[in-house]
Design a protein that fits this description.
This protein is of the alpha/beta class. It is built from nine helices and eleven strands. Helix 1 runs parallel beside helix 2 and helix 5 runs parallel beside helix 9. The longest helix is centred in the last third of the chain and has 20 residues. The chain is elongated and about 65 Å long. The N and C termini lie far apart (about 45 Å).
Length: about 250
């Protein structure tokens, strides 16, 4: 369970896209010219596949083969469409529970969060296109296979995704140690999206401003922060606890 599969060469990458393969990310050589290259970039934009223009040296480090100025990573999963997942959850009469990860870059944290989220009944993970740990074979291994079952929605703009969920009737709850309110005193028995941020930067200011509530996990020790996967597990368990109590 190591490196993700590489696709390199303009023709090979174009055919992979036309065949419906899911690409995690694509690197295109800066200044790449020619009609085949222009057609590939058009395809990338049309299918909304994230790509980054990089120097030729970077592509050479990724593969020693004749890459023709393009290298792509095949995704280990197929991503889900957020609006489809929301619609399905409502149609099935369930109370939505989504987890939004704001720039969680460690694959082990991503995998651990996915494992807990799937096990506790979350409906989907939401991650950004850029600045997030890839859903790689290593992430799937860390998740104990949960990433094969839990839908993952890859969004170009997390702020727009959060607003969409808010408009769809979900409460947006940001989990941050800087909050005043305890997560244990927050109503989790409602349609919900929990936002968790990276341990160094936290949740982006714009997402915090959009949130309906900001909550924290009460801490008694000198260290006032938790590993993000541990925090996710505690938040999810509180959701499940409250929802189970409401059904009694």
């Amino acid at each position: 369970m190591g490196k993700p599969s590489l696709v390199y060469g303009i023709h090979a990458l174009s055919e992979a896209i036309r065949a419906g393969k899911t690409l995690e990310r694509v690197f295109v050589q800066q200044g790449l010219k020619g009609e085949p290259a222009r057609e590939l970039i058009r395809l990338l934009r049309e299918r909304q596949i994230p790509f980054t223009q990089v120097p030729a040296e970077k592509l050479g480090r990724l593969t020693g083969k004749n890459h023709q100025g393009v290298v792509g990573y095949l995704s280990a999963i197929d991503y889900a469409l957020l609006n489809n997942v929301v619609q399905q959850v409502y149609e099935e009469g369930q109370v939505p529970l989504f987890i939004m990860l704001d720039h969680i870059t460690d694959v082990r944290n991503l995998g651990a969060i996915a494992r807990t989220a799937e096990g506790l009944g979350a409906h989907a993970l939401i991650v950004p296109e850029k600045g997030s740990a890839p859903v790689s074979a290593d992430a799937i291994k860390t998740s104990a296979g949960a990433l094969h079952y839990l839908p993952v929605c890859r969004e170009k703009n997390l702020l727009r995704a959060a607003q969409f969920l808010k408009d769809a009737g979900l409460a947006v709850v940001a989990c941050t140690e800087k909050a005043e309110k305890s997560a244990f005193h927050t109503d989790m028995n409602r349609p919900l999206v929990l936002i968790l941020g990276s341990e160094d930067a936290g949740i982006a200011r714009e997402l915090l401003s959009l949130a309906d509530e900001q909550v924290k996990i009460p801490m008694a020790g000198q260290v006032q922060s938790l590993n993000v996967s541990v925090a996710a597990g505690m938040m999810l368990y509180e959701v499940i606890r409250q929802r189970a109590s409401a059904r009694r």
